[in-house]
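Problem: given the chain below (206 residues), write out its structure.
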Amino acid sequence: MTNRLINGPDNGPIFVFAHGAGAGMDHAFMEAVALGLAANGIKVIRFNFPYMVQRAIDGKKRPPDRAPKLLEAYSQLIEEFDGQIIIGGKSMGGRMASLLSQHTQVNGVACLGFPFHPPGKPEKYKGEHLAEISKPCLILQGERDTFGKREEFDDFSFSEQVRTVFIPDGDHSFKPRKSSGYTEEDNIALAVEKLTAFIFEVYREE
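Solution.
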């Protein structure tokens, strides 16, 4: 049983892509984004955090590991690379990536659906470090994301390195309402397009 999935060419920029809290590296969202990036010439490396590795073995659902264990697992993977990489993730995985931006191998960070706070609990804010981040950071956020809606962003503090792209009518997984006229497929494609441009931009700056 492998705990990694790799898509894309060996000679492209490398994007290490971490999963969210509730679903592993093979989730449909992760798969769609990874294959989209791979088709654009980016090597995508997905992996499972330790608790998700254990779930794959015994089939039992369990909560995410605590942050120190998640960060340790992600750091170990980052340190396998000699050259430059871009790191990121879906929700929790993106937040963990943003906390590891100081690694010398990391050129940039991409967060897909950043969990700024639990739904309905804006007072439990988890994005303070984004005001200090010193590497290029892209946040792709659904306009209706209950973990941080578009209208809340005026209250968030970001460093000059942070840029945000809002996914039209998207929820935490970028899925729009049918009445919006947007489709989930189009929103994923938009996310892949913006992410591809960011990765190549950051990669070429070196």
